[in-house]
Amino acid sequence: MYELCFPGAITGETEFDCPYCGTQLTVTVEDPMGEASFQCCECTGVFEVDFGKGVVRYEV
Questions:
Q1: Strands, DSSP E only, in the chain?
Q2: Can you give the residue ranges of every domain in the chain?
């Protein structure tokens, strides 16, 4: 598992790059201090974002 730091998110939407293929993704932020899981629309990689800690977790 790797963790990538990114600037804190606010409610609404935020953008970051898929940790697998680098595609820029726009995701909905429902809880700026919570966690959420997402799936890339290009490579179908699944990853978790911890908005409170500012990290993206994914398997390699």
A1: 2-5, 12-17, 24-29, 35-39, 46-50, 55-58
A2: 2-58
